[in-house]
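User: Reviewer 2 asked us to show a designed sequence for the structure in our supplementary figure. I'm pasting the structure tokens here. Could you produce the per-position amino acids so we can include them in the response letter?
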């Protein structure tokens, strides 16, 4: 075996840490905030089915490839791609994949931070209202106020920048270790609450009974984009984390564990939320506000609701931070390696960039609500371009790079497996199925 390159940023202290960090990146607003409203906007069960299929057939194979690239390159995604392209005797243009990925991460961070700001603001909301009307009214009032939206957005970026500036290998570990399981427990508690709303079955049917007539090109692309988003795939986040992965960790197993935990949290969030939607006469098509107009009703009505509600939004904010860190890390690591700047300068510069774009997303709910690009407001547009275009395209290129450009023997060596059934299935999915399916969905959407 050739000697492993070393990361100048260090490595995670154990295998368990990599799993925690990758799960911390994957589990976030994408699962609890985005998945339910995307399912609601796209017809429920049919969307969920396509989403699950995308996770298994496209997401997991690409995740394995992305982690593998990261660990082999042991650098920021841009430099990793440059190194691996050289190793495969091919064009340096592959560096662009890392660079555009880093940009996609900052663009995602710009609106992610606005929604994470809502979660932080809700920590202090008190959970006194019990009716759907009052809870929805509160949320609308909140969105109408540009000053609070920008305040919470700024606070979230500042926290992210501070953590990233100090170096993500420190500090993060202990937090995720205890807080993630706690978040999981509160979601279970919400599911139990949902069971006695009287609309539990209705919620389950909505979420799991596919109505195939609802599937069209919009739904396909939305589900595909959501699969990439929730697994943090396609822009180098998992690649950057892979660079810090211990050399002897099994990449295949790890990818399965991370994807399973991530999918589990999303489904449980849906199971908790839709019964509350139906029991209170709300519409599943509520959009990005869905979690914020449903869960406070549950907390308002349950015993110790103030305690659980506050704790829930604290944990959700932390889950968002452990995700946002991975959105900025590819850019920061790249700055540090290539421009030899300090981590803190890199984090502040890139954080400021994401912050300034995010301001427009915050304003798109109030002052700039009439400003539309292709019929979408600024928040929706940034979300669409990144999640439904940039991530799937990034995914295609990652799949092609691993499947067609890298030497097979290097792939096998890095994965530390022998060529056999499992490898062959994975390699087939990566070489043929993933790029073709993603390509078809994109083409179908545009024509
Ligand atoms: N997966 C995270 C979530 O679900 C968001 C996220 C973090 C992300 N890093 C990413 C999305 C990289 C896409 C790419 O909340």
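Assistant: Here is a per-position design you can include in the supplement:
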């Amino acid at each position: 075996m050739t000697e492993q390159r070393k990361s100048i940023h260090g490595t995670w202290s154990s295998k368990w840490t990599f799993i925690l960090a990758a799960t911390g990146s994957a589990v976030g607003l994408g699962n609890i905030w985005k998945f339910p409203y995307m399912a609601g906007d796209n017809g429920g069960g049919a969307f969920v089915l396509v989403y699950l299929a995308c996770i298994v057939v496209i997401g997991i194979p690409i995740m394995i490839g992305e982690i593998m690239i990261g660990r082999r390159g042991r650098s920021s995604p841009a430099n990793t791609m440059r190194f691996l392209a050289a190793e495969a005797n091919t064009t340096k243009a592959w560096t662009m994949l890392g660079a555009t990925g880093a940009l996609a991460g900052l663009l995602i961070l710009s609106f992610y931070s606005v929604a994470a700001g809502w979660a932080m603001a809700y920590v202090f909301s008190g959970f006194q209202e019990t009716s759907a009307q009052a809870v929805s009214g509160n949320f609308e009032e909140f969105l109408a106020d540009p000053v609070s939206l920008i305040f919470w957005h700024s606070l979230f970026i500042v926290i992210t920048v501070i953590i990233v500036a100090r170096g993500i290998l420190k500090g993060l570990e202990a937090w995720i270790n205890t807080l993630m399981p706690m978040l999981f427990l509160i979601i279970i508690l919400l599911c139990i609450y949902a069971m006695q709303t009287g609309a539990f079955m209705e919620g389950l049917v909505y979420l799991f009974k596919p109505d195939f007539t609802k599937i069209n090109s919009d739904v396909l692309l939305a589900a595909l984009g959501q699969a990439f988003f929730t697994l943090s795939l396609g822009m180098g986040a998992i690649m950057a984390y892979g660079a810090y992965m211990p050399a002897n960790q099994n990449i295949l197993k790890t990818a399965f564990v991370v994807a399973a935990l991530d999918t589990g949290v999303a489904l449980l969030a849906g199971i908790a939320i839709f019964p509350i939607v139906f029991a209170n006469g709300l519409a599943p098509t509520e959009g990005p506000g869905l979690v914020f107009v449903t869960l406070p009703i549950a907390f308002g009505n349950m015993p110790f609701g103030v305690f659980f509600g506050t704790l829930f939004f604290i944990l959700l904010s932390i889950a968002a931070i452990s995700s946002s860190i991975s959105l900025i890390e590819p850019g920061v690591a790249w700055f540090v390696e290539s421009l030899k700047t300090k981590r803190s300068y890199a984090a502040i510069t890139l954080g400021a960039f994401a912050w300034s774009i995010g301001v427009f997303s915050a304003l798109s709910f109030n002052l700039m609500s009439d400003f539309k690009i292709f019929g979408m407001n600024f928040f929706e547009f940034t979300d669409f371009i990144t999640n439904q275009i940039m991530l799937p395209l990034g995914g295609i290129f990652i799949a092609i790079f691993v499947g067609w450009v890298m030497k097979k023997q290097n792939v096998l060596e890095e994965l530390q497996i022998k060529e056999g059934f499992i490898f062959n299935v994975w390699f087939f999915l990566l070489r043929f199925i993933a790029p073709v399916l993603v390509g078809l969905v994109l083409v179908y959407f545009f024509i």
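For the response letter, you might also mention the following. The mean pLDDT is 94. The longest helix spans residues 305-339.
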